[in-house]
Design brief:
single chain, about 230 residues, TIM Barrel, about 20% strand, binds D-xylitol-5-phosphate, binds zinc ion
């Protein structure tokens, strides 16, 4: 029996005019026969047009999503100065927050603030950022988000060298903090998810692989089942 596979479907690839339907399709795929709803969360990509060259959604949309689903909301903040937004995300009902190491001047304070607001803190790393930079703060984190593409857009190709960082984190947590979770984001498909699972990833973000084939309940369920199978068959 291998480690559990938790999927975090990214709504970036869903129809923004029908997000409640996308959330319902994900929920149905989680709570049907097979894995319990606890193995799924919704990944919400927040982009500000500055930290990344794209603009998406903010706390008001998270608040609307919160009213339409009880899935955990995993908010990935690709923004400059995330501190200014944390209280709004907490009020909107976010459960997990990841901030980028590259965007935080006082990361220790930011992480403490996320936890004080009642959310689970994580730190995201761009592909070029060395994972060792996180070592001093790892004991304060619930998870690390390893970006396996350059952030900003869905549908990019997976960058395999980023798995070296996953392996480093997996070794570190065995010795120090087994509860630390490792999330990966970018280019996850049935072809790439197995290598990420083998490297030690627990939570798999997938956007185009889940919503790219349409966001109807059957399409979402099939895509999620295929990803789970590909991960655990590896
Ligand atoms: C990219 C985002 C991802 C994106 C992944 O900046 O952080 O969450 O939705 O999309 P796919 O799975 O299509 O690579
Ligand atoms: Zn993301």
């Amino acid at each position: 029996m291998g480690r559990p596979v938790s999927l975090a479907p990214s709504i970036l690839s869903a129809d923004f005019a029908r997000l409640a339907d996308a959330a319902a399709a994900v929920h149905a795929a989680a709570s049907g026969p097979g894995p319990a709803a606890g193995d799924v969360m919704l990944h919400v990509d927040v982009m500000d047009g500055h930290f990344v060259p794209n603009l998406t959604i903010g706390p008001p949309v998270v608040s609307s999503l919160r009213r339409s689903t009880d899935l955990p909301l995993d908010c990935h903040l690709m923004v400059e100065d995330p501190d200014a937004l944390l209280a709004d995300f907490a009020k909107a009902g976010a459960n997990l927050i990841s901030v980028h190491l590259e965007a935080c001047r006082h990361l220790d304070r930011t992480v403490a603030q996320i936890r004080a607001l009642g959310m689970r803190p994580g730190v995201a790393l761009n592909p070029h950022t060395p994972v060792e930079l996180l070592q001093p703060i790892l004991p304060d984190l619930d998870f690390v988000l390893v970006m396996s593409v350059n952030p900003g857009f869905g549908g990019q190709r997976f960058r395999p060298r980023t798995l070296d960082k996953v392996r480093w984190l997996d070794r570190w947590r065995r010795d120090h903090q087994p509860a630390l979770r490792i999330e990966i984001d970018g280019g996850m498909t049935v072809e790439t998810i197995g290598a990420a699972y083998q490297a030690g990833v627990d939570w798999f973000v997938a956007g185009s692989a889940i919503f790219g084939g349409g966001q109807g309940p059957e399409a979402v369920k099939d895509s999620m089942a295929a990803l789970r199978k590909a991960a655990s068959a590896s």
